[in-house]
Design brief:
The complex is a heterodimer of chains A (237) and B (209). Chain A is of the alpha+beta class and 237 residues long. In chain A, the strands form three sheets. Chain A has a six-stranded antiparallel β-sheet with strand order 4-1-13-12-9-10. Chain A has a five-stranded antiparallel β-sheet with strand order 3-2-5-7-8, covered by helices on one side. In chain A, a hairpin with a 2-residue loop joins strand 2 and strand 3. Chain A is globular and about 50 Å long. The termini of chain A are close together. By secondary structure, chain B is mostly beta strands. In chain B, 2% of the residues lie in helices and 35% in strands. At the A-B interface, helix 5 and helix 6 of A face strand 7 of B.
Chain lengths: 237, 209
């Protein structure tokens, strides 16, 4: 399998003084800036958004992604079970420090190694798929009220008690040549509309130009929340 | 000025002349064919700008610059606004961050040895090496803080609420300024720091009778 991957994460232009989003792509974990990886044989991509309102959301998102980064490729094929252990580790680590107690984060991502492909989703970070002329949201936000953008999460890593439930029964897409996936924190669509994002991803520009345009639009049109986006082009087998 | 409202993303694409009509939407890359509706707008000003405004994206406050040369920083122009921008309680903008110079009809941005750097645009061109021409509606980063640049085509008369009115010494014909912090110091020269009460950015322009 061949993938072109490009992404960015930014603290946004609002009142947030730090970025609580983190990205992990093929071993590279970043909390600020952008990354470009072309012609990759595998794709291990995760976006995690530290939950606002709790302590140290940035610590939680960084902790979960660093634990995934440490896993061997074979372990990634059993990630659903391992993520429960990661959550227990996060709860234990955050419980040791008063400033981190209760910290929480979301997780959305995919693992594609060899013939193995799986998607993961916890919380309200999003996975979108552009296939032919369709641009569809693959994931469902795990929040109390989907119509309320400030609605609390119902599923997340960390928090005060272990409430993580990794769902496996949702419809996960199969990879088709020229599929374009967008993994993003909820900040992206708080800043930009689907009407703006879809034509950018559909354009004939290269992946880096598309992602830079997404970032440029977020900064010029205003991004109240931390904003993160990773675009993955599936270039075939 | 002319504009095209992108039929796909509905954002406004402005341009100066028909010859400069964009081939695609600035925001979403949608191609503009000959059938796309183009409108002339009468409300936009043209010509050489007489100043520029930096709008802080963190708190929407702004700094107006109308002179030919000006240094921005925590102890220079814009001190009031910059002193509010902190990360983890530490200032991110240096005492002497960068300079903006107006030469031959263009504004230039140059880093003045700041701690966290001065960058132009999303691609973050490092302004510590060479002066960078500033364009209207562009974004500059002072450290990690984003500021939106807006050119001014009319001489600003009265400061808007929340704005810092910073005028450099070389700005236009002689004006009269008074310290607005109660000490009442008056001068025909603008000072970033009032020489009498030492308050930053307290000088405001008054009518010369």
């Amino acid at each position: 399998m061949k993938f072109n991957i490009c992404g960015f994460t930014h603290k946004g232009t609002g009142a947030y003084t730090s970025n609580e989003d983190n990205i992990l792509v093929n071993g590279s974990q970043i909390n600020e800036g952008d990354l470009v990886l072309n012609s990759q044989d595998s794709c291990i991509c995760f976006v995690s958004d530290g939950v606002g309102g709790n302590n140290a959301g940035g610590f939680a998102s960084s902790f979960v992604l660093s634990k995934i980064r440490e896993l061997a490729p074979e372990q990634l094929k059993d990630l659903n079970n391992i993520l429960y252990k990661v959550n227990e580790d996060l709860l234990a680590a955050s419980d040791k420090e008063a400033g981190k107690r209760g910290c929480a984060c979301t997780l959305s991502g995919m693992v594609a190694i060899g013939d193995f492909v799986d998607f993961f989703h916890v919380g309200d970070s999003e996975i979108w798929l552009l296939r032919n002329d369709m641009f569809i949201k693959v994931t469902k936000d795990e929040v109390l009220d989907e119509d309320d953008i400030r609605s609390p999460l119902t599923n997340y890593f960390g928090g005060i008690q272990n409430k993580l439930k990794i769902k496996t029964d949702w419809v996960k897409p199969e990879l088709i040549m020229n599929d374009v996936f967008l993994f993003c924190s909820d900040g992206l669509f708080k800043s930009l509309s689907v009407k703006l994002v879809k034509p950018i991803l559909s354009s004939t520009k290269n992946i880096q130009e598309k992602v830079m345009k997404l970032q440029e639009n977020c900064l010029t049109l205003g991004a109240e929340d931390n904003v993160t986006a990773v675009v993955i082009e599936f270039a075939g087998y | 000025m002319f504009q095209i409202i992108c039929p796909t993303c509905l954002n406004r694409n402005s341009f100066e002349t028909v010859e400069k009509k964009p081939a695609e939407c600035f925001f979403c890359f949608t191609k503009f064919d000959d059938a796309v509706k183009m409108e002339e707008t009468a409300d936009e000003k043209k010509g050489t700008p007489c100043g520029l405004k930096l709008v802080c994206q963190q708190n929407s406050e702004s700094i107006i610059i109308t002179g030919n040369s000006c240094i921005l920083g925590r102890e220079n122009t814009g001190a009031q606004l910059f002193s509010k921008i902190l990360i983890n309680g530490n200032p991110v903008i240096s005492r002497k961050q960068c300079s903006i110079n107006f030469v031959d009809g263009n504004y230039y941005l140059k880093d003045e040895g700041s701690r966290n750097g001065t960058f132009y645009g999303v691609s973050k061109i490092d302004c510590s090496v060479n002066s960078q021409i500033i364009e209207d509606n562009s974004i500059i980063f002072l450290g990690k803080e984003a500021f939106w640049i807006q050119f001014l085509y009319d001489e600003p008369k009265v400061s808007e609420a929340g704005q810092t009115d910073a005028k450099a010494e070389e700005s236009g014909p002689p004006h009269k300024y008074r310290c607005n912090e109660g000490c009442g110091f008056e001068s025909e020269t603008y000072y970033d720091i009032c020489p009498k009460c030492m308050t930053s950015n307290s000088m405001v322009e008054i009518h010369k009778d």
